[in-house]
Each structure stands twice: as C-alpha cells, then as structure tokens.
Design goal:
Blueprint lengths: L2 H11 L4 H10 L3 H5 L14 H13 L2 H9 L4 E4 L7 H4 L7 E5 L9 E5 L6 H16 L3 E4 L5 H11 L4 E4 L13 H9 L3 E4 L11 H11 L3 E4 L7 H11 L3 E4 L10 H8 L3 E2 L3 H7 L21 H7 L7 E2 H8 L3 H13 L3 E4 L3 E4 L2
Parallel strand pairs: 3-4, 3-7, 4-5, 5-6, 7-8, 8-9
Antiparallel strand pairs: 1-2, 2-6, 10-12, 11-12
Length: 364
C-alpha cells in the first residue's frame, strides 16, 4: 500500500496531536513499520502508561486504511502531506507543524504574504467595522487575509476581503466538510467561490470540539507573516494566537481600543508589551516593510494622472512589495537613464516611493 496512506492514517489517529505523531514517526523507520509494530515497541512514548498505548493501538486497529486511501483520491479537496512539495514552507518551520493539511482551494494560496486578523467572537460594532475595513484594504493591496471563520472578528475579516474581491483563507477547528458555526455556511462557500481557501489539519467529518481551536491557532499564525488582534478579552483564543505567533517569530500587531471596554484589554496589553499599534492599514503594511498602502482619496496612480508611455510601463512593474532599480531596468527593457527619469516623475506624481538601496514601491 502507498506509504502516504500509512502517514495519513497515523495523522488521522493523532489529529491535533502533532508532537505525538512526530515522536512515533521519528522513532520508527517508516509509518508503515510503525503501523505493524507490536505494543511493546511503543513503550518508548513519553508520558503514556501501558493502557494509553493499548488505547492508541486499538484506534489503529479500528482505522479503515481503504477509507484513508480514498481521501488521497477525493477530488473535492486536496491532502497536503508534510513532505509534499505543495506543503507551505513557512508552516514547516514552526515548532510542531501539522503532519498533513486538508484543503479546499489552490495550495499555492498558502505561500506569499498573508496577514491574520483575529479577535473576539463577541466583538463590538467598532471591532467588526475595523476588522472588515482592515481586511478590505489589505485585500485591495493584494495581501491575503487569514482568519478562523468563527463568529465576530473572524467573520468580519473574511467578509471584508471578499468585498474587495481579495483572497481570504479560513483555518478551521473541524473538518473542511463541516460548517461551523452553521450560520457561516454561505460565507464558507463565498470564500471558496471567490478564489480563497478553507484549510484544516483535522480529517473530514471531524466535529468542532473545544480543544481543536487552540490547536488550530498555531496554523493561523504559522501561515501568516503578521497577526493583528482587533478585540480580545484578557484570556481569549486571539491572545493565544498572538503569543504563538511571537514564539514562531511572526510580527504581532494590535488595534488599540477604549480602555473601559473589556474587549480592549487584550490588544491594549499587547501594545504595552511591544506589539505594533494599528490605527490604519498603512501601519500593517509598514510593519511588513511594504510601505504605505495608498492615499484613500488619491485614486490609483495612473487612473487619475497623465502618465507617459514609459511611466505607465514602469508603473505596471511596481507593486506594494519593494522592487529594485535593476529589476525594473531588466523587466522594462528600457535604458537605465530612462527608467530613472520615469521613476523620478512617478515619485513627483505620488505614484511610487523610494526606499534606501534604490528600492521602489507603489503608493497608489
């Protein structure tokens, strides 16, 4: 039988327990060898009594390998195993990466620059408006928005990205064929239909158990370059995500709030501890080293300004992520002097800005 089936079968048995999975896989020569090993061969597992090992192997005995194999062939979703070339590189580098991911959508969406927006399920109107606005403007800047599809801030973030026809990714605490909460069924299919993705480390059919959500938070932050907390009480899942993000070396940001509101205590405390305060989308982009998103009322550069043929050509090659002068010369096919002249006029017209090292990014 395909080695991938044994890998996925162990993941099925130990879904959400990635550290235990890696302990077993690293001990045996292969997942297949582990699958057929005797009970005495598992006594090396740390913190488990013999009865726990017996229960583990009972679950192994009850697992239908043919059903597991069918998931690899199911065209309704993709299965990304850890050693699959499509598995996101940034997630591989966290402390306890999921051995497998189930996904609806294009696996390529899990690469590149993404920002996670997280917060309270019981967000205020202010929190919901801020989350939706930030997500919409990030999507307009072609930044992918990641959240957990929960009620409140998560839902507002996904909706904001969709409203700008941007890409948003939902990381679930249940199977990708399970809608939770139920009222987000339309949102879930909206995410997929709009070119986004739904991801989970939990196998198809897995219910939304309470312990799944803290576990999935490390995936939200692991897939992101930065985590922005909008509203959160002092003890909340959003703060768990923020602290996990710090451990993973991700940028942590927070939206300041009313000091009399309990839901502002979480982000306000994060700011006191050194998180980047977010009062506009520009703060997020600048925190990522991408410069200003755009001047809200200035239009979109060439749409409202008269640009020469060369200026239009150069401007079309510049995105919100800085690009070097050398790359612009190479891609435009223009002489260096003409590129530099075009960049000078684009700066004067407010379309682009220059960073140290002759790097340029668009502002509109």
């Amino acid at each position: 039988m395909d080695e991938r089936v044994f890998w996925l079968a162990w993941h099925y048995i130990l879904a959400g327990q990635s550290q235990r999975f890696w302990e077993i896989i690293n001990y045996f020569a292969s997942p297949e060898e582990a699958w057929f090993a005797a009970e005495k061969d598992f006594l090396f597992l740390k913190g488990l009594h013999r009865r726990d090992v017996s229960n583990l192997l009972l679950r192994r005995q009850r697992t239908d390998l043919s059903e597991v194999a069918s998931w690899l062939m199911d065209n309704r979703f993709s299965v990304l195993l850890f050693n699959d070339c499509r598995y996101p590189e940034q997630l591989k580098n966290i402390f306890d990466p999921p051995p497998a991911l189930y996904m609806r959508g294009d696996a390529r969406l899990l690469t590149g620059v993404s920002v996670a927006l997280v917060g309270s399920r019981k967000a205020t109107g202010y929190g919901l408006n801020v989350a939706e606005k930030l997500a919409r403007e990030l999507a307009e800047a072609e930044i992918k928005v990641i959240s957990g599809m929960a009620r409140g801030v998560d839902t507002a973030a996904h909706r904001g990205a969709i409203s700008a026809s941007g890409v948003t990714i939902a990381v679930l605490g249940c199977g990708i064929d399970v809608v939770y909460p139920r009222e987000n069924e339309k949102l879930m299919y909206g995410i997929i239909d709009n070119g986004g993705a739904v991801v989970s480390e939990f196998p198809p059919g897995s219910p939304p158990e309470a312990w799944h959500f803290p576990v999935r938070n490390r995936v939200i932050s692991g897939l992101s370059k930065a985590v922005v907390v909008v509203e959160a009480a002092e003890r909340s899942g959003a703060l768990i995500t923020a602290h996990v993000a710090l451990d993973q070396g991700r940028e942590v940001m927070a939206v300041p709030g009313n000091i009399t509101n309990k839901l502002s205590q979480g982000p306000n405390n994060l700011i006191k501890q050194g998180a980047v305060p977010v009062t506009s989308t520009s703060d997020i982009l600048e925190g990522l080293g991408l410069g200003l998103i755009f001047a809200p009322d200035a239009g979109r550069g060439e749409q409202n300004l008269s640009l020469s043929v060369n200026e239009k050509k150069i401007f079309s090659l510049i995105e919100y992520e800085p690009v070097s002068l050398e790359i612009l010369v190479q891609k435009s096919g223009l002489p260096p002097g003409e590129v530099m002249t075009g960049l000078m006029f684009l700066e004067i017209k407010g379309c682009v800005k220059q960073m140290p090292g002759k790097l340029y990014y668009r502002t509109g």
